[in-house]
Specification:
single chain; about 350 residues; mainly alpha; 15 helices
Length: about 350
């Protein structure tokens, strides 16, 4: 029998398809903004959605892919936010942004994002090396303590230094508002792209093997300490990027924003979307950011509805919206092409014949 081969889209073509879809999504949103369908208020909400997507997907590296339970993600976000905020206040960005010279301010903005990622990554390395020797509840407790230490330090460090640095509980104010929807959108795409490429590489497979069975992974020669620390530091760096964008969106920072509940909020996004699913984290971050805004008309009951949604979700779908499944437009396109050309039926018939012959 002349068996038809299934259509397979080459990897370069897959990335090209994804790039075209991403550009198309941005153009649609931009057109809606220009048409006035998306107001200035909702544009700000979309920026927050993008920041939360970066936070959720970055935490998903440590929880979903690595299988650990860190509870100090808000601490890394705070480090990134204050690093970016202090740096941007010391640079001539405010005048450039006020004058509309966005391109002139772009190198400074990229520098702030890069520095925020590096400093947050260094703190991730500092806490990751001792913390990742622990597991489960013990890891959660030590990372929770780290997050609270960061908040307390940001609140009281000025009295120790003897000069104004973070401005304590009064807050770091007059930060240039450089976070636009376009910048946040690009950062979301880059962060998700980096996570995808890492998880599809041999390093990502090593991380997944540690999650599935750490003892077995170590027995076949995988350096578990190295890969656990690498994933933890990468997660912290992306949280630092989100923090920098958050500072550039609000224009002011107070340490109380980065309390324990902020880490829990990010963790809820990951769990609701499905631990190990990037698309699940993206969808849950979007839904959990938009839902409180959409329920403002019933302000007295919106938190009840929000909580009820989480309870129902955990009862009927404890693995989250998508579990560990990651959607791929290329796979959908492959299935469609094979179906429309009749190759799927031919492949199924050939498979049935082989099984019958056995």
């Amino acid at each position: 029998m002349n068996e038809k081969k299934l259509i397979r889209i080459p990897t370069p073509a897959r990335y090209l398809i994804n790039l075209v879809l991403i550009v198309a999504l941005y153009l649609v949103i931009d057109a809606l903004k220009n048409a006035g369908v998306i107001t200035k208020y909702w544009n700000g909400i979309l920026i927050v959605v993008g920041i939360n997507i970066i936070l959720a997907t970055s935490l998903n590296i440590a929880t979903g892919y690595l299988g650990q339970l860190p509870l100090g993600h808000a601490g890394f976000m705070a480090i990134g936010a204050y690093t970016g905020g202090i740096l941007m206040k010391s640079l001539p960005v405010d005048k450039m942004v006020a004058a509309g010279d966005t391109m002139g301010a772009l190198p400074y903005i990229l520098l702030a994002i890069l520095c925020s990622a590096i400093i947050a990554g260094l703190f991730g390395l500092l806490i990751g090396i001792p913390a990742l020797r622990l597991r489960g509840d013990y890891l959660a407790i030590i990372t929770l303590g780290f997050g609270e230490i960061i908040r307390v330090v940001l609140t009281n460090i000025d009295s120790v230094l003897g000069f104004k640095f973070t401005y304590g509980s009064a807050g770091l104010k007059r930060i240039p508002k450089f976070s636009t929807f376009g910048l946040v959108f690009i950062c979301v795409v880059v962060c998700c792209g980096l996570i995808h490429m890492m998880m599809k590489s041999r390093h990502g497979r090593a991380v997944l093997s540690i999650r599935d069975n750490e003892i077995a992974a170590e027995s076949v020669g995988i350096n578990t300490t190295y890969y656990k620390t690498m994933a933890f530091v990468f997660s912290a760096m992306l949280a630092g990027v989100a923090g920098c964008l958050y500072a550039g969106y609000l224009g002011s920072l107070v340490p109380s924003t980065f309390k324990f509940m902020k880490s829990i909020e990010i963790l809820v996004m990951v769990v609701l979307g499905g631990m190990g699913s990037m698309l699940g984290s993206i969808l849950s971050a979007t839904v959990l950011t938009l839902l409180p805004e959409l329920l403002r008309s019933v302000a007295d009951y919106r938190m009840v509805a929000y909580s009820l949604l989480l309870v129902i979700m955990m009862i009927f779908r404890p693995k989250g919206l998508l579990g560990s499944y990651d959607f791929s437009m290329s796979r959908v396109l492959e299935k469609f092409l094979n179906w429309i050309t009749g190759r799927s039926k031919a492949a199924d018939a050939a498979k049935s014949e082989k099984e019958a012959a056995k």
